[in-house]
Design a protein that fits this description.
This protein is mostly beta strands. It has one domain (24-405): Methylamine Dehydrogenase, Chain H. It has helices at 2-21, 288-291, and strands at residues 52-57, 67-69, 72-79, 84-91, 97-105, 123-124, 128-135, 138-145, 150-157, 170-172, 175-180, 187-192, 198-202, 215-219, 222-229, 232-236, 243-248, 259-261, 264-269, 275-280, 285-286, 292-296, 307-309, 312-316, 321-325, 332-337, 347-349, 352-356, 361-366, 373-378, 388-390, 393-397, 401-405. The strands form eight sheets. It has a five-stranded mixed beta sheet. A hairpin with a 2-residue loop joins β14 and β15. Residues 5-21 have low confidence and may be disordered.
Length: 412
Amino acid sequence: MKTNLIFCVGLIALMFVEIACADDWSGWRGPRGDGISREATAPLRWSASENISWKTAVPGTGLSSPIVVGKRVFLTTGDATDESRRVLSFDAESGKLLWNVIVHRGPGGTMHRFNSTASSTPVSDGKYVFASFVDDKGLVLAAVDFDGREVWNRRLGTFHSTHGFAACPVLFGECVIVNGQQDGDAFVVALRCSDGEESWRYRPDVNLRSFSTPVLTKVGGRDQLILTGSSQTLALDPKNGERIWFAEGPTQKFVCTPCVGHGLVFSFGGSPEKRMMAVRLGGEGDVLGTHLAWRNERSMPYVPSPLLVGDYLHIMNDSGIYTCLAPLSGETLHTGRKLGSVYSSPISVADRIYFFEDSGTCTVIRNNSEFEILAVNELGETVQTTPAFSDGSLFVRTETQLVRISSLPSVR
């Protein structure tokens, strides 16, 4: 009896360890949208051949990042030959392409030369994968199940932006939310995950493009959807789309995802000026005059989203200039040119920060203010997407391939 009890306790403990270690990366910047994995171990060193579990060719082109749910990896891609937008599913253990499903066809419309027809990272609730795309008529959101069957497909509205589209869908409760702020008829919309029916729609005061993905947080027990766009940093109630608070700035147009922590929202604007500001949470209405904590206008990013890990706000701008700020005061703790050009956003695992350059070089630093380099790794392929992390491995989309980096034996 005692032996059985010990066995059962051990089995339960093992189950909890497995649950704690297996952290799905279910959407843009992970399950919480903050770029941080709670797993305890991660690969530190690799090369084009060392510590590579597998590499798999990715059909089509795109700048969306991978997501990982259980033993599946999902990506979106566009195929210029038939103007299709597709959702792809790969086996996480072997890298095998399981299915390749067309969810939309149509001309890509006007976009920046560095954008693509598949730049929005999908999100999954564990049952469906939700993917958003743009064509010359507007925004489209599709849901597919894990067998590659389309569940629903909805047009969200027209979309006008000379640079194209890139904001990623996010989940709240039973809804999937898309930031459709643009130069035309701007909106943020929530659809029911089950059937794609519209739950609510918010229309901003000003129509200006935003490529920023919202992030969710709680303030005093109340859920808030934090986003940037149309010259504002703001919070919506994700249950009904009502605006809770707003602050003008830090500039007009946005790409970076905001960071939230220490009772503050950190928002980063890229055009026409590269600026950031910190806003204290807890206000209502126009809070610029009452809740602005601090601003910074030096070496801010346009595309790469910063990363807040504990007491350090890590910022890498597009030119490879690194800045570390103290989140509460805005004090500059460290700054200087460190890397080459960067489009990828950093992630954090096991108190390490991973920065991928466009060249495929990944610099790994310790989470402190010193830019303490632990490793520099050459993947040998262009990387302009943000890695996913799950099950002790980095999943990286290069220009042509999906790569699993880990300390596991190779299955190639």
